[in-house]
Structures are given as C-alpha cells and as structure tokens.
Amino acid sequence: MPLVMVVDDDQDLAEMLSIVLTGAGMEVDLVGRGDQVIDLFNSHTPDLVLLDLMLPGIGGIEVCKIIRQRSMVPILMLTAKGDTQDIVLGLEAGADDYMVKPFKPQELVARINTRLRRINKVGNLAIGNLLIDQLEHKVVKEGQEILLTRLEFDLLVTLAKEPGRVFTREALLSEVWGYQHAADTRLVNVHVQRLRSKIEVNAESPEYVLTVRGVGYKAGAAKI
Amino acid sequence: MLISKIKVRQSLSLKVLLTNLAFAIFIAIFIGILIHDRVSSTVINEKISISKIETANALNLAQGHFNIARFQDDKGLRKVVQDFITSSREDGSLSGRETVILSINKNAKDQNIYQTVPTLLVLDSIPEKFRDQIRKSDQILDKRVTIRYSDGGEFPGFLIGGKLSIPRSGDYEIYYLFKLNSQYKSIADITWVLLVTGILLIILIGFSTQFVIRQVVSPVKEAALVAEKFTHGDLSSRMTVASDDELASLGNSFNEMAVSIQQQIYRLENLSTLQQRFVSDVSHELRTPLTTLRMAADVIYQAKDGFDSSIARSSELLVNQIDRFELLLSDLLEVSRFDADAAALGITTFDFVNLVRKCVDYLHPSKSSLVEISAPTHSIEIEADPRRVERIMRNLITNAIDHGENKKIEIKIAESENEVAVSVRDFGLGFNQADAAKLFERFWRADPSRARTSGGTGLGLSIALEDTKLHQGQLLAWGNPNQGAHFVLTLPKHYGTAAYSFPIKLEPDITY
User: Fold this and answer.
1) Least Cα separation, residue B404 to chain A (angstroms)
2) Is B303 on the interface with A (CB under 8 A)?
3) Which of A92, B180, B240, B348 is most buried (most C-beta within 10 Å)?
4) Are residues A7 and A73 in the same domain?
5) Residue B478 neighbours by CB under 8 Å, 6+ apart
6) Is pLDDT of B468 > 80?
7) DSSP β-bridge partners for residue B412
8) B348-492 adopts what CATH topology?
9) Residues A14 and A86 in one domain
10) pLDDT tens for residues B197-216?
C-alpha cells in the first residue's frame, strides 16, 4: 500500500483526508506542523506528500523546499487560494501539482493515483546524449546520473517517446498530470523550467526540451 | 465671429484685456481730438490775429502817408503808390502773402491804374460777399478762405481786407491773402505725434493689462488646472502659494479643501479595501471547513445505499447543498475580486462559435435539447479570456433554462466587422422592462415571494456583466412578463478595443 503523508494543521480536515485516502487503499501519516515533517520523513519515508500551504511552524513552501533537498517524492499542494502567487511559488519550490479547496474527494484520489502510478514500460530512450532508462528510472548524461522527480521524469519520457511531436501545454497536462479538462498551464511552464535547470547546459538556450512558440514543447533533435 | 465670441466668453483674461483696450482706445481718441483741436485753433487764430494787427497798422500807415503827401504831379503820386504796392508784394513773397488791390468803382477807367492781382491767383479766392462787406464797412475784416491758383494749386489760408483811399484815384479795396501752409504743416506734425503717442499708449496699456492679468488670472488658471487634475484622480495635486495676498488665500483654501477631500477619500478607500479584504478572507477561511464537510458528505453519500431511505435522501440533499454553497462561495470570491479590481484577464484567440456550442453541450441532455443555435457555419475568432466568456455564456444559458419554463431557447450568433454578438432568447416567465437594469444587481430577485427553482447563486448575471465590462463589451436584457427574456451580449473581436456596433438588436421579434 502506498504511504501518503498528510501535512495539515486543521485536524478535522486531516482526519477526513485520512478516512478518504484509507478508503481508497492508501496508508496515511498525519503531520500537524511544518517543522515535524522532516523528522517523520526520515523515519517513515512516504510515497507522496499532501501539503497544505498554510502551516504553523514552517510554511508550506519552505517545507516543500526542504523535502526537495533530500527526496524526489511527489508533492501535492493544498491551497485555499487558487489565484495567488503562492501557487507559482509552491510549484517553483518543487511541488508537482496543486489542488484548490474545496475539492471533491474522488478528484483528490485520482490526482494522487496519477502521481503514484508507475509507467511500466521497458526500454531506453535518448534525446541526443541524454539517455533515459525507463526500467531503472534513471537519466544519464555524459556518464553522470541526473536526479529527477517522478513528475519531471514522466514529462521527459512523454516528450522523448515521440521525438517529432509538438505537445501543447494542454496535451501535457492531460498526459503527465492526468487532467481531463483544461487546467492551469502554469504547471507545465514551471516544471519545464525546473526540468531544464537540471538537464540543460544553458537553460536560456535549451537543447533537449525546446519551446515551440505559441504552441508548446517538443524534444530536441538528436545531435551528438 | 461666433467662435471668437465663444473664446472671449471662455477666457477671463481675454475679456479683461479687450475691455481695457477698448477703454484705452476711447480715451486716447477723445484726448487726442481735444488736444488736436485746441492746438490747431490756437496756432491758426494766433497767426490770424497777429497778421490782422500788422495789416491794420500797415494800412493805416500807408493811408496816412497818402493823405499827408502833397505830390507835385500824378507821376510822383503814382510812384509812391507803386512803391507801396511793390514793397507790399516783396514783403509778401517772403512770408507767402499775396496782395490784391481792386478798384471799388468798376466803371471808372482811369481809376483802375492801381488795380493789381498776382499773376496766377484766381480772383474767386476772394468771395464776392466778403468784398461787399469790405465796401460797406470801414473796418479791417478777415475771413478763412481757400487760396486758389490757376495752375491748380490750392492752399488753406485767410484773407484780410480793408479800404485804401488813394488821392486823385478814388477808393480801392485792398486784400492780403495769407497762406496757412506752415501752420497746417505744424498741426499735421502735432497730429502725427499725437497719433503715435496714442498708439504707443494703447500698446503700453495692453501690455500692462496683460501683466496684471497674468498676476491675477494665472493663479486662477492654476487653480482650475489643479482642480481638474484632482477630478481626474490625482488627489495629491496642490496649488503653489508664494505670497500673502488674496490669491494666496484662495490657494490656501483650495489646498485645505483638497487635503480634506483626500483624507475623506482615503478613509473611504481604506474602508472599502478592508471590506473587500474581509469578504475575500471570509471566503478563503470558509474553504477549509467546506472541504472537510464536502468530503464527509461524499463519504456518507457513497454509502447511502445501506441506509434508511430518509437518511439516504438526506445525504443527497446534503451533497447538493454543499455544491450550491461551494458555487456561492466561488461567486462571492469572484465578486470580491471585481470589487478589488483584482480580476486578471487571460487573453487568447479562440473560436467564439465553438465556445458557445461547447457551453450547450455541457448541459444535461434533457436541457440541451431545448436549445436551438443559429450561427454562421464558419468560425469567428476573437481575442478574449475564454474562461470568462464561457462563464458569461453559461450564466446566460442557465438563466434561460431556469426561467424558460421548459419552452425552447433560441441562441443566435452574429458578427460585424469588429464585433461579435450572441443572443439568448427564452419564452418563459420574462420580467418587467423596468427591472432590466436590476437584473444585474447582486442577489436581486424578480419576485421575492417566488420559490427559487434553480441552484443559481443570485450572482451569476452580476458576474456576467462584470466579465463583459472587463472585455469592454455590452450585455443588455430585454423582457416582458410571460413573453420571455432576451439577453444580448456584444464583445469586441480584438482585446483593448470597445464594442461600437451591435449586430443583434436588443428588441426581439415577438413570435408566439
């Protein structure tokens, strides 16, 4: 059973979340304060973190950054404000996705499952000298392994599997994040930036993940 | 003419300047004419009176000379008379004086021997009437005349006439004609000086008026400018006060007023910011408990099959009402964003026709079957925020379904060069035309006693109108009780421009 760490200071909501998630076949760890996250994280590493942005102790964005320093675990933010800078900050701090309260429980479970699912495809992909090992979930460039979050890995694999295709942001939201309806395209922008900062030599003039102006993104041409 | 009149009316400084100039010109002309008259009459009269005295003396002297002299013969007498005439003429040639001697008795032939008229002088210069006066009188008389010469020359001048009695020859009329050339020239010179002085004076008065006006009017102008800035929202604009006069007190009062208004406005702004913040905070704070509530309700709802029927129904109602509550909350939040001017537009280019069709497709099949769309077959690309436009359309369509009494709903799309319009027509309850504007008010209900059938929040149309305004479009409503309602939305095709023409008119063709 996957282990989900729920970080929320509202005890009732946290309890309700644990009821819903347990009902969906997950194990749940509840944490009420931001500064308690790390202690528990070390002893009981979760498969996914459900993180409220407004927390006592350390704020959600800070917690997000701390988790990212030591783990590539998927992070799903919970926020009461759907239109603020907080979301962009959270995404830039390393969150994979976000949900605006109030959300439907089914939607939450679906979103968590998307992040937890494993793409069990065997085989290696490559963009130029960037080698992607799907089985080992590893990206190697010039003999060096690059650590990617699962979402960043999925994003890279999606692009690399169809080298010629230009993916619109909406298509990526559907394939990588699992959104059926139109969603926030900032998700794509922020994560492409994060991915580039890890794999590109110069994120300003990318070689592996190219921007197609006015349309979306595509994998770079294979060149050695 | 009209334009200049308007200009004068509009400009205080121009008005003052023109009035002042008019007065200056009037006074200058009046004084000028007075001085001119006085000077010219003095100059001429002086000359005349001096000449008259001199002439009288000369005549008396000559007459005395003739009377006393005892001449041996006519020849001697003639010489004396001739000498008198010659010397008189010679004297005259220096001073421009002409001497005319005429015999009184026209018939006496031998008496005419001393008659003399300067060669070119036209004798008409001496009026016959004046000659009559001279003949009858023993006085030396004078008269202003025009001296004319046969070569066409005409000079202003005067005439002094008297009688001369020459022994053995009888009585003669003697006339001296004085030209007033030099006097008139002096007068002309004086006139010029007066004219130039007058003009200079007027110009000077013009400038000084302008200077004074600037001192008085420019603070007034500045006040107007500052007031205008103030009106346009620049609450920090103030007048500069640099002296202690009345204008400075105007400036001070103005500035005090500005400060007071600014404070009031800031206070109100602050209040409304607080109010908006409060609405926004409340909405956000409600979200966390609502999330818990929603999840709890969902869990209960999922398990409702195992419950007693009343509890199962209760769980359904609970979920529905939570849905509605959530809708209300998000609408409330949207409204607070409009109030705070914090609504952001995400502008993209999209097909308007497609968007409208999509809105209908989202409806429940039992409802979408009521809707008839008549639209151009081609796409209509517009620059707008699709999320907001979709929300407007959904609000209008939901509204039509809620109040349409299950009758058909007509949606029409039309375009002009720069605008696209869509109308939603239902044939249901309708509303009084007087309520058309109130429809867009928050939480307004046509009939408070009427049971609410829909899950609408009462904010839908108000949000639709705000969304339309953000796009510089127009949203209007027409209605008649029991004939239905007609909503027309017009949007500019290009973001940043306003809608100017309206492809669909508000008044629908009434069909039954």
Assistant:
1) 29
2) no
3) B180
4) yes
5) B433, B436, B485, B486, B487, B488, B506, B507, B508
6) yes
7) B374, B423
8) Heat Shock Protein 90 (3.30.565)
9) yes
10) 999 999 998 899 888 888 77
- B337: contact with A, CB 8 A cutoff: yes
Side chain identity at residue B349, one-letter code? T
Q: How many CB atoms lie within 10 A of CB B488?
A: 24
Asked if B429 and B481 touch (Cβ cutoff 8 Å), the reply is yes
User: How far A168 CA sits from the closest chain B CA (Å)?
Assistant: 14
Q: Write down which residue in A116, A138, A155 finishes a domain.
A: A116
- Give me the domain span that covers residue A163: 124-219
For residue B238, the number of C-alpha atoms closer than 13 Å in the C-beta half-sphere is 15
**Which CATH number describes the domain made up of B70-179?**
3.30.450
Residue B388 touches chain A, beta carbons under 8 Å: no
- Mark whether A50 and A109 lie in a shared domain: yes
Location of each CATH 1.10.287.130 domain in chain B:
247-339
CB B183 within 8 A of CB B43: yes
List B381's β-bridge partners, or say none. B351
Residue of A16, A80, A83 lying closest to B292 (CB–CB): A16
> How many beta-carbon pairs under 8 angstroms link A with B?
48
| Same structural domain, A128 and A200 | yes
State the pLDDT confidence band at B196, using cuts at 50, 70 and 90: very high
Which of 227-286 (B) contact A at CB < 8 A?
A: 284-285
Chain A hits for B344, CB-CB cut-off 8 Å, are 83
> Which residues are CB-contacts of B355 (< 8 A; sequence separation ≥ 6)?
B386, B389, B390, B393
Whether A101 sits inside 8 A of B296 (CB atoms) is no
Task: Give me the percent of chain A exceeding a pLDDT of 90.
Answer: 13
pTM (predicted TM-score): 0.56
pLDDT given for residue B423 in this prediction: 93
Is the model more confident about A22 or about B61?
A22
B146 vs A22, residue with greater confidence:
A22
| A112 and A181 belong to one structural domain | no
Q: Are residues A164 and A70 in the same domain?
A: no
* Closest residue in A to B334 (Cα–Cα): A83
Q: CA distances (Å), A54 to each of A58, A108, B453, in order?
A: 9, 18, 38
How many of the other CB atoms lie within 10 Å of CB of A84? Answer: 13
Residue A80 in contact with partner chain B when CB distance is under 8 A? yes
Q: In this predicted structure, which of A25-34, A169-178, B104-113, B328-337 has the lowest mean pLDDT?
A: B104-113
Location of each CATH 3.30.450 domain in chain B: 70-179
Q: What is the pLDDT of residues A50-74, one digit of tens each?
A: 998 888 878 888 889 988 888 888 8
What is the domain-level CATH number for residue A144? 1.10.10.10
Q: Within a domain: residue A224? A: no
pLDDT of residue B472: 92
Question: Phi and psi (nearest 5°) for B174?
Answer: -120, 130
Q: For the segment B270-317, what is each residue's pLDDT rounded down to a tens digit?
A: 888 887 778 777 777 888 889 999 999 988 998 888 888 898 899 999
Domain B247-339 has CATH 1.10.287.130: yes
pLDDT for residue B512: 46
Question: pLDDT tens digit string along A28-51?
Answer: 999 888 888 888 888 888 999 999
Q: Which of B287, B292, B294 sits opposite A80 (nearest CB)?
A: B287
Contact at CB, B295 and A19, closer than 8 angstroms? yes
**Which of B310, B395, B394 is closest to B357 using CA atoms?**
B394
Exposed e or buried b for every residue in B307-342, given b needs 16+ CB within 10 A?
eeeeeeeebeebbeebeebbebbbbbbbbbbbbeee
Q: What is the CATH number of the domain that holds A19?
A: 3.40.50.2300
Cβ–Cβ below 8 Å for B326 and A101: no
pLDDT at residue A200 greater than cutoff 80:
yes
Single residue among A71, A100, A116 that ends a domain in this structure: A116
